[in-house]
Specification:
Distance between the termini: 127 Å
Largest sheet: 8 strands, parallel
Order of helices and strands: EEEEEEEEEEEEEEEEEEEEHEHH
Structural class: alpha/beta
Number of strands: 21
């Protein structure tokens, strides 16, 4: 396979392939689409993947012309067992439009240099996805397909693949903050960072990603408020911020209030529509209003404990007085003399 230096598209999806990342692919620097998803590959993602940046130049044997490829545009490694951190060399792939590393065992932080993905900064206007740059050598323009998970559903894209730009890093062990630089990718259609160990705040400039249709940041450890600018993402049709540590009032805006409360559950300090918990003047959720039925139930519980305690109180009080008199002769005599004195005094007053 390593001798296929002009190989432009390789799909090995949904098999039982194992072992480390295939080393022979190092020579296939003309790859435009690489899909190794749903296999059992292990080890780390190699740094030499950064060489697939479209700078491969070759003199054609036919007429001596120079041919080149646009560089890797689609990299899908979803659902494998890759470990280690995301190599910084991937940032050299400025032609990359789709990066899917979801459902692996990757750790470390999200590289800030992801902002170098210049093809993700704007939508492609090409109606013919992934054309090779030398049509004399490649007799017809190449059309490819890819299967991607978007809005929680698996879709297969073909003719519209070149118009997509997205990133899926979900279900890994990534930590640290969401890089502010990620918000420079204004052309992203979908962004999925769910089910990681991400901390810190949601970047304030996330509202600048106006092309987003799907955003999933659920099941992390994000804190702070939801940026007001998120209400300006008009194309957003799928949003999931559930199970974080977000707080404060949900930004007001028709787009956000239209989502299901399930998009925000698991954030106890979050309030405002579409959640049922209103916000107080301090921007925190209002306490629950006591229910009359609850008050009646609490009253009945108090009365029940009162009646249950009465017999025990009587027994304890009774024996607290009689026990000393029964077992101490001197106290018994003194007690009855006291009663006699009281009796005589009362009779004397009556007479």
């Amino acid at each position: 396979m390593g001798s296929l230096i002009w190989l432009g598209s390789l799909h090995l999806r949904n098999n039982h392939l194992s072992g480390n990342f295939p080393l022979p692919l190092k020579n296939c620097s003309s790859l435009v689409v690489l899909d190794l998803s749903k296999n059992e590959f292990t080890g780390t993602i190699p740094a030499w993947m950064g060489n697939f940046d479209g700078k491969f130049i070759e003199t054609l044997p036919v007429d001596g012309e120079i041919a080149y490829t646009p560089g890797l545009m689609v990299l899908v490694l979803h659902s494998n067992k890759f470990t280690g951190s995301i190599p910084l060399e991937l940032c050299h792939l400025d032609s990359l439009q789709i990066l899917d590393l979801g459902n692996n065992n990757l750790s470390g932080t999200i590289p800030r240099c992801f902002s170098n993905f210049s093809s993700m900064t704007k939508q492609s206007n090409s109606s013919s996805p992934f054309p090779f740059h030398n049509e004399r050598y490649f007799e017809s323009e190449s059309t490819d397909t890819a299967t991607l998970v978007m809005k929680g559903v698996e879709y297969e894209y073909d003719n519209t693949l070149g118009l997509l730009a997205g990133m899926d890093l979900s279900s890994n062990k990534l930590s640290g903050e969401i890089p502010e630089e990620l918000t420079d990718l204004h052309g992203l259609i979908f962004l999925n960072l769910s089910n990681n160990h991400l901390q810190g705040k949601i970047p304030v400039k996330i509202g600048a990603m106006t092309s987003l249709e799907s955003l999933d940041l659920s099941m992390n450890r994000l804190s702070g408020v939801i940026p007001q600018g998120m209400a300006n993402i008009s194309f957003l049709s799928n949003l999931n911020l559930s199970y974080n540590n977000l707080s404060g009032k949900i930004p007001s805006g028709t787009q956000i209030q239209g989502f299901s409360p399930l998009s925000f559950i698991g954030n106890p300090e979050l309030c405002g529509a579409p959640l049922t918990d209103g916000c107080g003047e301090d921007g925190k959720p209002k306490g629950p209003i006591p229910d009359n039925d609850d008050e009646e139930d609490n009253g009945w519980i108090d009365m029940k404990w009162f009646y249950l305690g009465m017999p025990w109180g009587f027994v304890v009080g009774f024996w607290a007085i009689l026990a000393p008199l029964a077992f101490n002769r001197a106290w018994r005599h003194a007690y009855f003399r006291l009663l006699d004195d009281v009796k005589y005094k009362l009779l004397g007053w009556c007479l």
